Structure formats: structure tokens, C-alpha cells
Amino acid sequence: MTKPSPVPKAPDGDTTAAPEDLRLALRAATLYYLDGLTQAQVADRLGVSRATAGRLVARARTHGLVRIEVTTPPHLRDDLHADIEHALEKRFGLTEAVVVGVRVDDRGPVDNSASFAVLGRAAASLLTRRLRPADTLGFTWGPETIAVAQAIPSGVATCKTIVQLDGSVTTSTYQTGTEYVLGRCAEQLQAQPVRLPTPLYADATTVASMRTDSVISRTLELGSRADVMMFGVGAVSSSTTLFEGSFLDTAMLDTLDELGAVGEIGGRFFREDGTPAHVELESRTMSTPLSEIAACPSTILVAGGASKHRAAHGALCGGYATMLVCDIACAEWLLDRSPTHPHDSGFDPTEMR
Amino acid sequence: MTKPSPVPKAPDGDTTAAPEDLRLALRAATLYYLDGLTQAQVADRLGVSRATAGRLVARARTHGLVRIEVTTPPHLRDDLHADIEHALEKRFGLTEAVVVGVRVDDRGPVDNSASFAVLGRAAASLLTRRLRPADTLGFTWGPETIAVAQAIPSGVATCKTIVQLDGSVTTSTYQTGTEYVLGRCAEQLQAQPVRLPTPLYADATTVASMRTDSVISRTLELGSRADVMMFGVGAVSSSTTLFEGSFLDTAMLDTLDELGAVGEIGGRFFREDGTPAHVELESRTMSTPLSEIAACPSTILVAGGASKHRAAHGALCGGYATMLVCDIACAEWLLDRSPTHPHDSGFDPTEMR
DNA sequence: CGCACCCCTGCGCATTTGCTCATGAGATTC
DNA sequence: GAATCTCATGAGCAAATGCGCAGGGGTGCG
């Protein structure tokens, strides 16, 4: 009599219901969410059982009577970038992205040590949060990891071992800062430091023989199995650390450029899409391979400065980082890049330089 | 060095904090409230302990990062009146107010039985929700309670006893409906019915002697101690039930009018401010006194129709009802009344008629 | 009119959550 | 430079919450 239409079961996804039923749901939700009563108190207040009160609250939610929104307060809109971080995580499949408010600009003559300090603090905070006492931490040398080491607090986190992922022994006077990072992190994290006492690059035969060394092979093994890895990226440029430290010469730089390399991690270069760029150089490199980095469950990429943008993008596309710490400028640049399609290997000449 | 100002304790109500601390709080709140993760999952996702995850969520709330609002969906704005109900509760100190969407208009020639049915359903719903199996339910006779009795479902609620609060025996043929209400409610609620086998009004001496009767006194006692009472209000008018049923004559109506009476419950009249209006008539009335009604922890006033507005207002001001069921027109009228000051006894001539 | 189905309700338990205490590191003050 | 204070963290526990189950009444179909 009241229902002429054959609708025994409402297929309408529960979006509509009797208004009288929803009156109580609305009331329960108000008391629960707005007045902060417990469900038992709501039940008492409404004269229903506790279970029913819970159902009413649940119904209120399913019917859209309750709207919960998490927003960044206006007074720290400039410091927090939850939306950008979330976009980065979604875009590159990251576990966590941390975007600091500063804009690292390494092209101009300005001193970006302050910016790097901010970046370092953020990365150190992330690192100490992710580190477990039984973990092994691997790191590459470079200005980014130095900044992290400087910012790392003591007592907050602990790990078992900290291991060097790429060789740093040099014939020149160039300071890689490896000792500082290794020493400081080991101290602050109360971890046992493990060195990789080799150069970064050597002849292929030398590298092959070094890898058979019991100590070196153990270190490499330890690095490959590290629970957490932390590293920056190097650009393919004459102003990058590897060139300034005489690890690479101009000819190699040109070769890498022609191969489409956009960046490196631990001296191992990759292209725009993250694929390894110079297999021959790979065999001459003493560091954890990119494949091992990609296999690590927790890898933190610290990237600051415009010169590192392309390199960071390549690293992210290669899946070498599960976590990213970068400045806002880098984050925006990364998101401006093709939001969907990753390159299918090879490189696009129009993207060069 | 970093803090020259003497601010050991921040007296600023925790509205501001380090942005970096809030970053995690924001993240935790997002995962918890928006993504629906449990706090343990949030903790795992963020690399913190479960306790810390809980603290982060709590901090996000205290800092206003989370905003929860309970709103009436637009498609039932016309049926629900949560704001009006809340205003009524606040204004008159009610436990609960139920406002139904219909507009009972008893001045015109329209049939308002449908409106009364809606009102009755709402009141019955409220009543069955509030009733406990061990409770005694008291009621007065009248069209409102008849509507409630008609709407009461079976099996939903139970109570021990249902007792008549005001005498209904008449010498005329007027049907009060008391028997119907008593019988139907007793059946549906599986309660034991208790009659008050007396007229509503009698001589003072008669009333006094009736009150000494063991059966009658027990009924009155039972009514006074009822856990829940349900009643309508009568207006001071020639179109009201008490006059039509020949319980009152024109002279008495005028007397009551002059005394400032605006309404009655169980034949006992009160003024605009709720104070008893005719002490002499009180001694001639066989019903639960207003003071007993005011003392009852759960009293449901069912009011529909424009003619009852003033009476309902007086009843609410007298504190005779802890719960109110009325139509939207009545609710709006009640709220349009002085929102703050209650009258200090006596009556205002300008308010009459 | 009987029967089966289904929704609603209340009960008991596993999980989740908020809270308190004790511990330790950093900051402040004398 | 040392004592103390404050704050944050982790463990444990009690309260609170969600979810299963079973029972009963209403509804629709036969």
C-alpha cells in the first residue's frame, strides 16, 4: 500500500534513509563529535543502548552527516606543504616526502648553507624517525649528507651500524666529508661505523679484485643489505662535486651527457627515466649498485638546489628513493614535470641541457 | 643565546607551536581521520610508536588542524530541525526537543489529524526510546496522548505500569479517550494499566475524601512517582477540550482568564510564567499536582496547534516538561518569545488574548 | 493465514584508544 | 659547572569502540 514499486532492497548505496532515523543519528553525531561525549554518554543522553549509539554515529558518518577535514592553519601555510608532499608521494610512489619551506638557489651567488641546514634538519628528523635500533644505515658522501650529519641529534635514535656506500679515497686534497659524516652519525646514533676504504672509481680489473677482498666485500655486502639508505644526487655538470673533486674529467662528462645521463647516486649515473646510463663506468665504480639501492625498502633522497632538479627527477623515476627531502622549489619543479607518463628509456634530445 | 626573552613557560594556550612538530601532527591526522587508518597503522606508516601517533593526532586536534562539523544534509533540511531543537533545549533547559516538520494549524477549517499523527509518531518514538522496562508511565488524557497511543508500536519498548494522572469520569457523553490510551499503551508496552476512577473536578470535600481512599490514593501516589509522564496542554479557551467536555463552564473560563492562566496540565492551570493560577480550583482537582509533574525527571509535553502555543510556553517556563514534542510552527513561536527573561509572576495585560 | 526472510536490537569479546607512571635527555638557573 | 626543571618518549593498563553472534518482531510472499 505504501510501496507500489518493487524495491525490496534499496540499491541506492544507503545515501538516503528515513528522516526520522537520521534525526537521532544527527543528534548522536553532534553529541559525540561536537560535544565530545563518549558513546556511552550519548546512549544515556538519548535513551538508547550503547551499541545503538555506536550504530547511530556510524550511520551518521555513512550518510555524510559528519564531515571531517584536516587543514593547514593559515599561520603556518608557508611552512607546511602537505598538499605538495602528498602530490609528490602519489606521483612518485613515495612512502614520505618532506618539503621544507626554503628555496635553495644554488645558481646565484647567495650562500645556501642556511638553506642546506634547514634541509639537513628535515632529513635528520626523518632519518631518526625511521631508524630502528637494529638497523644498518648506509650513506653516500656529498654536501647533502654532510648537512644531515650536522643536524642529527643525539639520543633520539639509535642504529646498529652505519656503513659507507661509495668509495671516497682520493689522491687529491679534495675533502669528501665522508669521515665527518661517518664519525658524527656513528656517535650520535651510537652506531658502529664501517668504512669503504677504496676510491670511487678505478680500473675495472682493480674494482673486480677489490671486490674479492674479504673486508671490502663484506662492507659492500653490508651496504647492499642496509635497512635504510641516505644519499643526495649528483648532477651531470662541471659544477658538481664529482667534477670538482676530480673524480670525473671533462671528457667523461661529455660522454655521460651524450648518453643522456642526468644524475648519479654513489657515482653511478642514470638517465631521465632512471635507467643506468653508462654500463662501462659501472664496472669501474666502487659503490652500491643502483639496483641494490632500488631494492632497499627505505631510501632517503635529499635534494636541494636547482642544479639537482633533473637528477632528482631521474632518481625518483628510477625508484631509487622511497622518501624524499627537498626544498619547495625542487618540489614544484618535480611536479611540473610530466605528471603521468614516465619515459620508456632512451632520452629525449629536446630535454637535454 | 637563542632566547633572550624571559619566556620559560608559554602562556599562549598552545595555539602556536613549532611548525616542524605540527607537520607530523598534520600527517598523522590526515592518515587517521581522512584515510581511516588506525593509530597503530599511522604509527607504522610514520615510523613512530603507537603512543606517539596518538599524541600527534591529539595535538592536531588541539591545534585546530582537524575540523569536524555535523551538518544536516540538504535533502532533508525540511524534515530535520536540529538547530531549532537545540535552541529550544537551551532556551527551556530541556533534555530533548523534537520538532516535526509539519505545521499544525488548528485555527483554519483544515483537518489536522494527519499533522497530529506525525506528532504522535514523533512522541511515541521519543517515549519508547526513553521508557525503561521497570518504569511507570503516567499520562493525562487529551487528543495529544491519543495520537501518541495510536502511534505506539509494539515490542519496541516495555514498561511496568501505565497510570492515569488525571480523573476522567464524566457525567456527560463526552469521550475523553482515556480508556483507549490506557488500554492501547498497556497492550503495546505490556504494562499493567492503572485507572484513576474519579472525575477531574469535584467539590473540595469530595476530593479530600477521595484522596483518603486506599485505591485512589495509591493510584495518585503511583502517578506522582511515575518515572515518565506524558501529557498535552490545554489552553484557556472555549474551544478547548475541558470546556467542550463540560468540565469547565464559561464563568470559570473567565475567572481563569482574569487570573492570567494560559494553560493547564491535568486540569491544573498555570500562568504565563508557569506558576499555578487558581489555588482554589486546585483543591477541587483530582490529578497529579503541577509540583509533582515538575519533580518528575522525565516529562514529555506534546504540543501541536496554534491554540496551544501560549499554554506550551507557560508549561515550559514552569519547568513541567523535560522533553518537548511540537510542530515547527510551535517551535518557532516559542523561540520568538522572550529568549531570556522569564516573567516574575503576575501577567501582562498586553499579552492577553 | 502461515511461512520465510530480513532488519533491528542487545550481548559478549577482540581491538583500539586515551591515560598515567617512570625514565632519560636537554634546557635553565644559580 | 652542577643541580633542577621541563619536556618528550615508551610501557602498561583501563576505558572505549567496533564487530561478531543470536533472538524477536515486522513484512511480503505464497
Automatic annotation (TrEMBL), chains A, B:
Report the InterPro entries cross-referenced here.
Homeodomain-like_sf (IPR009057), NagB/RpiA_transferase-like (IPR037171), RNA_pol_sigma70_r4_t2 (IPR013249), SorC_transcr_regulators (IPR051054), Sugar-bd_dom_put (IPR007324), WH-like_DNA-bd_sf (IPR036388)
Q: Which domain of life is it from?
A: Bacteria
Q: Which Pfam families does this chain map to?
A: Sigma70_r4_2 (PF08281), Sugar-bind (PF04198)
Q: Which residues form the Sugar-binding domain?
A: 82-335
The record's keywords, sorted A to Z, are: DNA-binding, Sigma factor, Transcription, Transcription regulation
Q: Enumerate the spans annotated as RNA polymerase sigma factor 70 region 4 type domain.
A: 30-63
SUPFAM superfamilies (alphabetical): Homeodomain-like (SSF46689), NagB/RpiA/CoA transferase-like (SSF100950)
What PANTHER family is this protein classified in? TRANSCRIPTIONAL REGULATOR LSRR, TRANSCRIPTIONAL REGULATOR-RELATED
Similarity comment: family membership: Belongs to the SorC transcriptional regulatory family.
The protein here is known as: Sugar-binding domain-containing protein
